[in-house]
Amino acid sequence: MKDVLERALESLSREKREEALTHVSYANEMGSPVNNERLEFLGDAVLHLAVGSILYERYPSLSEGDLTRMRASLVSGATLAKIALEGGLGDLVNLGKGESASGGRRRPRVLGSALEAVIGAVFLECGWEAAFNLVKDIFAGKIHDSVPVDPKTRIQEIVQRVPGSTLEYRVVDSSGPDHRRVFTVACVVNGKEVSTGTGFSKKEAEERAAEAYLRTLTET
Fold first, then answer.
1. pTM, rounded to two decimals
2. Of 9, 15, 59, 211, which has the fewest Cβ atoms less than 10 A away?
């Protein structure tokens, strides 16, 4: 993470880098009107759009509500502070003496704000593509750590890694009275049945089939 943020900072002009790393406490001590609050505001908007775009493309079957919850988890203050701490931003931020003495370099609000300010600065000076790629690099490998993903979505993601691959769920059996129907569904990848699952609805049976296939992938 440190190298990702170092590259981002190196891409900025000296003036914009200093602005992104200047906390309001330091600006007040120096009598300067320049601090990172405006860049934080912009970076927050860019971050939400970039993460939303990544999740939208990665999880085509998820509902708006699920996507919203996933994005909220990823862009939470706690997550951003952890990323900023890993990237060493706490050591780089310009803090006032009082803020620094009271542990500001490890304070989640200070860290998260600095990270958003850096993203905002990259967007301003380097454009959307650079800012989007920065967000992708920041969250690489963290989505599954931060957000539980349902089995069907996970299977879909795995299958889509191979271009041209197909995934479908087929009802292979149903039994019982109409008010208590039991469905058996097969998970079919590239035309081959890889697992089955049963449930009192087709959706439940599909989830069980996906879980069964995931177990086989984990065990191999």
1. 0.67
2. 15
